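Tutorial handout. Part one gives the primary structure; part two gives the three-dimensional structure as tokens.
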Amino acid sequence: VLLIACGLLVRNFVQLSAASPGFDPHRLLTLGITLPPARYPDAARRVAFFDELLRQVRALPGVLAAAGTTALPVHAVRFSMALPEGQPMVPLAERPMFNIQQVTPGYAAAMRIPLRHGREFTEGDDAKAPRVVMVNESAARRYWPRENPVGKHVLLGRQPGPSEIVGVLGDVENLAVGTDPQAEIFVPFAQIPWATQNLVVRTAGDPRSLTAAVRACVLALDRDQPVTG
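Part two.
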């Protein structure tokens, strides 16, 4: 019995090791930043901080790409009810639940997540622009089977109006390693800017060699701002 259990454990480990998580984890540096509300009380200040931070980090030698996201793979942090176009109009509590991420432009490119349809977010998808979202493949298959969902709409949470789907990203394991990805909606960070962001930095060499330089960019903007993770 012990030999059988060990064999199954080894087989499962090999299968998990060989499975693609949906993004490229190699040469990827991640850091967590939570802006204190006393110094960053409004959306405009939070957006300005992360915009400037990304500009500086992207200019560092050895950085190939950089972006921000409120959640990292297999670490979902926010969920919301949403009503995909084509579903019956029901009360909020009866609507499907989705993983929600707020991401900056360049997120899919930095993580090397394939863009299946449409486009990524751009700098033009800001607070003054019409509301837009991206969805993952799991959401697309579930709610728009055999259709391209680009151009469809999603009513997110308690928002007064729907958001237009502009892109479909490949699935990434978003709850746990080795589990099926859950339906996910991506929102432009500039349209719903949380105080907490994960910086993801794609590097040409060892990511750890750039930790100090990226941290220095944060401290140059705010010398009291901690960096975690």
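Part three, for discussion. Confidence is low (pLDDT under 50) at residues 5-18. The two ends are 40 Å apart (CA to CA).
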